[in-house]
Amino acid sequence: MSLKQWLALLAFYVSYLFFGASVFYHFEHKLETQKRAEAKQNQLSLNDLLLKSFKPMDVSLRDSILNEISSFCEKSVHNDTTEYLEKPYIWNFYHSFFFSFTVCSTVGYGNISPTNTFGRMFMILYALVGIPVNGILFAYLGEFFGSMFTGLYRLYHLYQKNLNKHYKPHQFGFLAQILLYFCPGIVLFIFIPACLFSYFENWEYSISVYYAFVTLTTIGFGDFVPTFGSLQEQQFGVFFRCYQVFIIFWFITGLGYLVMVMGFLAKGMRSKKIAKLETLVASNLRSRNERLWQSIQRDRIFVRSIFDELYLLNYKVF
Amino acid sequence: MSLKQWLALLAFYVSYLFFGASVFYHFEHKLETQKRAEAKQNQLSLNDLLLKSFKPMDVSLRDSILNEISSFCEKSVHNDTTEYLEKPYIWNFYHSFFFSFTVCSTVGYGNISPTNTFGRMFMILYALVGIPVNGILFAYLGEFFGSMFTGLYRLYHLYQKNLNKHYKPHQFGFLAQILLYFCPGIVLFIFIPACLFSYFENWEYSISVYYAFVTLTTIGFGDFVPTFGSLQEQQFGVFFRCYQVFIIFWFITGLGYLVMVMGFLAKGMRSKKIAKLETLVASNLRSRNERLWQSIQRDRIFVRSIFDELYLLNYKVF
Questions:
Q1: What is the pLDDT of residue B7?
Q2: B227 partner at 20 to 30 Å CA-CA among A80, A190, A246, B136?
Q3: Which residue intervals define the domain Potassium channel in the entry (chains A, B) (predicted)?
């Protein structure tokens, strides 16, 4: 695939993600609005019931009971009509885009997922196109990263040779090669981004590392997912937007890197197969050359016999 | 990889899954027991508080209020000490095994996930070995399914030829081939198992189809996961055990089938590359043959000139 074709496919993929995001956003945002209204209704009616039930009681005791119930339920039973309005929507456009991406890359966190039959059926059709496109795109991205990586590695050797004429590159075994490929990537794509996750999400560092690992291996549990905190936007302002963009960027490059490593491993395994094939072809070629040489020899003998006869003829004539 | 090696790897993988299951079961079951005790404590103290708060009130009204709160919270606030004892554990051995498998296959439902730092770190180390082993195992399983599938396809053609001497196999295009590979698999691995899921899980059929699709593509949202119902074991008895085993079996064959289809698609794409290479080699060969032929022609002309000279010599002599 040429770079032009790849870029065309990338453009298609990005517009496909935006298309998916628009559809999911349109339908799920509406459903979420309905569900929020219902939840609000339930909350208010329960609050009403509770207030009616404890009649002659002082206000502070009543409030403390409501607090107890709220903390037990992990949602408010107070008469706070503003809370639901302030909490940001789960199905905003960014999360819809993020969701489309997690579908196509098969990460599938599942902290948000389609909530009705239409959404589920659309998701299936959407994934049927998105997963192969994503796969092809990342396969070539991985290849590109691989050639870049080996290029850098070669440059490093050249540089070392310039410094020291007697420099000889190390020959690494299979396991050492794996470590060589993995270590810089693990630092770059897991340990460094994990600092950012800890900062923006207020997670323990071990949880951030765990999240990065679970995402890049496409396991995607969804027990921890970034950018879903309800106060992040107010707290970090414009940096939060940068962080949201960074996550998409990290996701793409990280997956590309992982595909690259997988490609190296597969090549290492395949190269053994190819070596076997090569010896087979070489032995075939050798035997064919020998046969060719034999037939040439035969021809030479035949031609010489003709010449000999002709000369004999000449001699006879003389 | 020979069948023997594959079976050895399979044996290793299965024991690795059992090992993971034991570790997760051991730690998470303990944590779950603690959490259940805490939840029970919270429930009872809230119940106590509520009963104290509505003092002079008739029992049926009080119960109806408790019911309202319970349904709002989606967990009981009654003083029912038996409920928590009866509800089956989430982290039983089967679910631990299932969890290990979802980690190694990168499905990662995430409806259950490690709950403390030790569990998370262990999961990372566990996946580092499990994912590659799973990948290699399924790559070969997919290859095996592929050869079985093409074998069956060939047998069908032979059978058709025996019936009808003039039978010619259809030549399918790329898209038609994809459909040919996909259709039987979709019926066998999605639509038929979905009936079972609907029966045992009491899901709508569309949800069962959605679950099967989300699982086999390794998206794994985890919004619907089988065998987690709290009453299934009592309701279906021994059939539930069979169903649990069936799910593992379905999972393995379904993933193998999907890898097979992916392999066919990749081969189809690669075969285009190979076809290009072949035409290149063929044109090289042709040009080389032509060059060879030209040189042979030259040699023939040269030899003929010698012969002619010799004959001339003869004539001269005569």
A1: 92
A2: B136
A3: 88-145, 186-267
* Among the listed residues A232, A191, A185, the one whose alpha carbon sits nearest the alpha carbon of residue A212: A191
Give how far Cα B73 sits from Cα of A238, B76, B169, Å.
Answer: 36, 8, 63
B219–A103: do the CB atoms touch at under 8 Å? Answer: yes
Token pair 């050798």 is found at A286
Most A CBs within 10 A among B120, B126, B190, B261, hence the mutation to make, goes to B120
Q: ipTM for the complex? A: 0.78
The 3-state secondary structure of A112-140 reads CCCCCHHHHHHHHHHHHHHHHHHHHHHHH
CA atoms within a 13 Å half-sphere pointing along the CA-CB vector of B43: 21
Among the listed residues B114, B36, B254, B35, the one whose alpha carbon sits nearest the alpha carbon of residue A219: B114
DSSP at A82 = T
Among residues A317, A2, A67, the alpha carbon closest in space to that of B316 is found at A317
Q: Give CA separation, B36 vs A150, B42, B73, B274, in Å.
A: 53, 10, 16, 60
| Nearest residue of chain B to residue A52 (CA atoms) | B54
Q: Global pTM?
A: 0.79
- Chain A contact set for B57 (CB, 8 A): 53
Q: With a CB-CB cutoff of 8 Å, which residues 36-95 of chain B face chain A?
A: 42-43, 46, 49-50, 53-54, 57, 61, 65, 68-69, 72-75, 77
3-state secondary structure of A144: helix
Torsion, Cα B228 B234 B238 B240, to 10 degrees, reads -20
Return the residue in A45, A134, A179, A223 with the most chain B beta carbons within 10 A, the one to mutate for interface testing. A223
| Contact partners, residue A84, CB within 8 Å, separation at least 6 | A36, A39, A40, A43
Position B98 pLDDT exceeds 90: yes
User: What's residue B313's pLDDT?
Assistant: 65
User: How many helices (H) does chain A have, and how many strands (E)?
Assistant: 10, 0
Would you call A120 and B207 a contact, using CB atoms and an 8 Å cutoff? Answer: yes
Sequential pLDDT tens for chain A (318 residues): 788 888 999 999 999 999 999 999 999 999 998 888 888 888 888 887 777 776 656 677 777 777 777 877 777 777 776 655 567 888 999 999 999 999 999 999 999 999 989 999 999 999 988 988 898 898 888 888 888 888 888 888 888 888 887 777 666 676 777 777 778 888 999 999 999 999 999 999 999 999 999 999 899 999 999 988 878 888 888 899 999 999 999 999 998 888 887 777 767 666 666 667 767 777 777 777 778 888 787 887 888 887 777 777 666 554
Residue of B nearest to A72 (CA): B42
CB contacts of B121 in chain A (<8 Å) are: 206, 210
- Which residue of A lies nearest to B309 if distances are taken between CA atoms? A310
**B209 CB near a chain A CB, below 8 Å?**
yes
Greater pLDDT, B317 or B18: B18
Closest CB from B110, B117, B121 relative to A220: B110
Nearest CB to B46; choose among A43, A72, A132: A72
Residues of B in contact with A124 (CB under 8 A): 209-210, 213
